[in-house]
Amino acid sequence: MTRFTRRDVLKFGAIAGGSLLLPLGLQKRSYAGNAGSPNVTRFSLPFRSAPVLNPVRSDATTDYYQIRVNKTRVNIIPGLSTEVFSYNGTVPGPTIKQRKDRQSVVRFVNDSIGTPTSTHLHGMASLPQYDGYAEDLIPPGYYKDYIYPNNRAATLWYHDHAIHRTARNVYQGLAATYIVQDDLELGLPLPKGAYDVSLMIQDVILSPNGSLVYDDDGQDSLMGDIITVNGVPWPRMEVANRKYRFRVLNGSLSRSYRLALSNGSKFTMIGTDAGLMGSPVEVANFRLGMAERYEFVIDFSKYPVGTKIVLQNLSLPNNEDYDNTGVVMRFDVVRQEPDDSSVPSTLRPYSVIPTSSAVRTREFRYERSNGLWVINGKVWDVNRIDANPQVGDVEIWRLYNNSGGWFHPIHVHLIDAQIIDRNGRAPFPYERGFKDVFYVGENESVRVIGKFGPHTGKYMSHCHNSVHEDHDMMNQFQVGTGGPDPVTAAPARSLPAPPL
């Protein structure tokens, strides 16, 4: 289908976003007691889980889903109506739960938001034409069927990935969780069902009338003064005095979190971006960059009914009010229940990829130049390939950030990889698993190692500070030779759509 230029995408955005995002001059975020978003009492609103999406039909190998991308109104703050973009009318969108190796076909229909979209299932090893390539756009009035092999058991998420519009579209609501489980995981005695809980953390800015405010501070970052979990500001979750498994995702555009429990208790970490770790580790706090996912268990049986524990954020930029963004949600122990779950000492077979198996090392430097965010001095170019590994090649990528003023969570599409070291030091204990997002802090050099495949074709790598990604910290690599073209192999089609 037709490729859209940057001007085309910005034009669509100006048409679509006028009623959703106020101009920066109308509402400036501020902290430390100054005027900002409307107030909401922390921990006054109940926690809620995103709805689970049922397939419209199923056959022997495949489940078929339909998701409409539309405008809707939600109450982020009680009494105020906020217009958002949504998947099927909810923010965050509906969760898809699947079994490993059972295929999904997901139809995304762009029917009412007025701007192109592209859906990336983050963490899935999809074919290039179903990966959410940034220039593989679904224009307004079109739809596209994405085919997902569900070849990894992990906590994934799907979100918009449209060229130069990712940050705004995600900020306006286009994000949701996608969970794949396998027999090994389901056979473990970990908490299940209602005790297996997804948490999507995001921050936003609202005007006094409830409208979303998009303030990226001169294409630097967007730091909201309201912290939401599954779309609810600072919720209160009522729990039983038993173990819970949590799958946490940082869905913010630019904010990193360092999560800790207010009573000093430790998290039992069990999973990274790519699923269960080899064995659990206990940590008092952990860092959560944008798009990273971690899984952990909290054992509330240690606490009597009536206990209240706050999930804190210890990572705060300068001049932020601790009471405002230094807390995320609260757990209230309200009842007693039996608990037959446990955390086994071995979770999944895991071995470190030896560095001696790497056939080459590449270096990528993440910097700001002339107001743009660049990789090795270059911005996104659809016609440029910056790496060409072959299927089966093991490579080491050195991700280097020489800035003292910002960090970059780097996402590599298609593959899962392991962190070798950070500035020559071992990765944090909770990072010792397969991942697809790598936190590259200020003045840090992070080496990662991964095996490329199973598909050939073009895939992207980029900073997951979505503001940086849009302006223009994104490049691409080609696995092998040939492969389906990510734009033309499965183009979007105009509505009306036939039945799935």
What is the secondary structure topology, with strand pairs?
Elements: H1 6-17, E1 21-22, E2 57-58, E3 62-74, E4 82-87, E5 96-99, E6 103-110, E7 119-122, E8 142-148, E9 155-160, H2 166-171, E10 175-181, H3 183-187, E11 196-204, E12 212-213, E13 226-229, E14 232-233, E15 236-240, E16 243-250, E17 257-261, E18 267-272, E19 275-283, E20 285-288, E21 293-299, E22 308-313, H4 322-325, E23 327-335, E24 360-369, E25 372-375, E26 394-401, E27 408-412, E28 417-422, E29 437-440, E30 444-451, E31 457-463, H5 466-470, E32 474-479, E33 493-494
| Quantity of strands, as a count | 33
Roughly what fraction of the amino acids lie in strands? 35-45%
Spell out the CATH superfamily of the largest domain: Cupredoxins -  blue copper proteins
Please report the distance between the alpha carbons of the first and last residues.
Answer: 21 Å
State the share of residues found in helices, binned by percent: under 10%
CATH topology of the largest domain: Immunoglobulin-like
Q: Give the helix tally.
A: 5
Query: Largest beta sheet, briefly?
Result: 7 strands, mixed
Spatial sequence of strands, sheet with the most strands:
14-13-11-16-21-18-19
Structural class given helices, strands, pairing? mainly beta
CATH class annotation of the largest domain: Mainly Beta
Rounded to an integer in angstroms, the radius of gyration calculated over CA atoms is 21 Å
**What does the average pLDDT come to?**
93
Taking pLDDT < 50 over at least 5 consecutive residues as the criterion, the unreliable ranges are: 1-19, 22-34
Q: How many structural domains are formed by the residues? A: 3
Identify the CATH architecture of the largest domain: Sandwich
